Amino acid sequence: MSDASIDPTPDATTPAADVGIAGVQPLRDGDTSIEPDPTLDPAQAEWDATTALDEGADPDDINPATATGADPAEIPADDSDIPLEDIHPESTGTDSQGMDPGVVELGEEGQGDLAPEDL
Questions:
Q1: Do 6 and 25 touch, CB atoms closer than 8 A?
Q2: Between 100 and 61, whose confidence is greater?
């Protein structure tokens, strides 16, 4: 990705201009993969937990168990179930749209499990 508003000629005040590298710019906040807040960085949190374990911390203090023993994100919420009226009944068979399900099963050419004379 390039920015057309950047002048590619080196500025005489930058050290890169001394060695002949044109267009060198410092990194900005969005140009790095490092999380500015270390508490939000999962790798840093894992590193801190490992360091705490090495120093003798109780593992239950670092990673407390949930009441179910499962990840809290996996515990279903009360509103996560599909309403009963939205569940399609399993015993209805094919979607016949008002036609005889046996005929629908045969198809247009009558090439199903039943012969047309079996109807």
A1: yes
A2: 61
Instruction: Give per-residue pLDDT as tens, 85-99.
Output: 777 666 555 566 666
Alpha carbon distance 42, 33 (integer Å): 12
Residue 5 CA to residue 113 CA, distance in Å, equals 71
Q: What is the DSSP letter of 113?
A: S
Evaluate whether 37 touches 24 at the Cβ level (below 8 Å).
Answer: no
pTM: 0.29
Q: Round to whole Å and give the CA distance between 115 and 110.
A: 7
Q: Per residue in 55-93, pLDDT tens?
A: 998 888 887 665 666 666 676 777 777 777 777 666 555
Distance set, CA 40 to CA 9, 44, 47, 72, 108 (Å): 39, 8, 12, 18, 61
Q: Which two tokens stand for residue 114?
A: 């039943």
- Nearest 10 degrees: Cα torsion 24, 25, 30, 34: 70
